Description:
Chain A contains 10 helices and no strands. Chain A is mainly alpha-helical. Chain A folds into 2 domains: about 1-95, Rna Polymerase Sigma Factor, Chain: A (Orthogonal Bundle), CATH 1.10.1740.10; about 100-190, Arc Repressor Mutant, subunit A (Orthogonal Bundle). In chain A, helix 2 (about 20-40) crosses helix 4 and helix 7 (about 120-130) crosses helix 10 (about 160-180). Chain A is globular. The relative contact order of chain A is 0.11. Chain B is mostly helical. Chain B is about 80% helix and about 0% strand. Chain B has 14 helices and no strands. Chain B is extended. At the A-B interface, helix 2, helix 3, helix 5, helix 7 and helix 8 of A face helix 2, helix 4, helix 5, helix 9 and helix 14 of B.
Amino acid sequence: xxxxxxxxxxxxxxxxxxxxxxxxxxxxxxxxxxxxxxxxxxxxxxxxxxxxxxxxxxxxxxxxxxxxxxxxxxxxxxxxxxxxxxxxxxxxxxxxxxxxxxxxxxxxxxxxxxxxxxxxxxxxxxxxxxxxxxxxxxxxxxxxxxxxxxxxxxxxxxxxxxxxxxxxxxxxxxxxxxxxxxxxxxxx
Amino acid sequence: xxxxxxxxxxxxxxxxxxxxxxxxxxxxxxxxxxxxxxxxxxxxxxxxxxxxxxxxxxxxxxxxxxxxxxxxxxxxxxxxxxxxxxxxxxxxxxxxxxxxxxxxxxxxxxxxxxxxxxxxxxxxxxxxxxxxxxxxxxxxxxxxxxxxxxxxxxxxxxxxxxxxxxxxxxxxxxxxxxxxxxxxxxxxxxxxxxxxxxxxxxxxxxxxxxxxxxxxxxxxxxxxxxxxxxxxxxxxxxxxxxxxxxxxxxxxxxxxxxxxxxxxxxx
Lengths: 188, 267
């Protein structure tokens, strides 16, 4: 959405309870929310639930949005928080046993660990690697690479400085390189 | 060497196009003359390309979603879920903001608080009442006190584990060449504070027979004891030794598991 005024009008419409304005906002941002949720949860149906809950929460909380602030960042922050809640409730216990090292979000597998992994597909290894990153690193990586947000927007969505985004992005990619091990190109 | 380190720290931002002109030019200039950093860059590019491929996969998954239907469903559910009153306009001005209808409950709460506070003060300050109270002793059932103590022990243990986890993460995430966050932990005296807190925690855990929590907290205490012995700069070998200590004992894993159990009141 390039036109800020148009977006502001839609948001004002949502404030007034205008269903069409709300539907337009949903149409504009639902895919971005889905990408975020799907990247975190890696489950299509769960991600769709998060999309729905994000917009219902947006509708309830629209009065707390300050006009002029980054709307997309505000919306993605809601989605991020819902993803974290959902993950804690439904995933954490299960994944601990499914993914070696999944519990310890900051553990970085050595190349030898990765080589031992039964997963042969680097896509799966990358997804697991992203899932096992520290929470902030994970969110920065997902928002940068899957949502394709610039640092400025990530900074607004996560309420951290651009310098911190840069540092977390660096750490995330460095850890993922180690995680990918033999699947990674270039110097290890 | 410093140039290489600085360049590598900027590679993610460089590849993302997030460096401003002079910084990007400096990185590019260094890459031109440094074979090792060029190899490093190739590795980082590879991660970026793999991430692009994963994003394309997400795009494929998205094709199977009926987006129009979804937005219509969400829009249909919103009014029922939210029970949001339709407002025509926002109240303006200081008085308008001060007396907004949705603040009614807040004002009612404040009023009620003042009333209850006044009544309680009146009762407490009344001498005859005091005399009556002196004759009585407050009592609560042993079972109730037991539960309170257990809850406090759990809360304190969780707090201790949380703070310990941050310190351990700082050590695990530090690399020998850049012990920045680990060094900051050492300088902050956080480990010393947590050692002091552990002394307070010990009798609580013993009394509540939280043996598993006690055992793990003891291991963390051993680590902090090691940390407070280090003064000045953190040598590389020392950092590696501490990282091995953490990994060998799987401290992070144990902390996470214990935290979960404590949160679910299983310990």
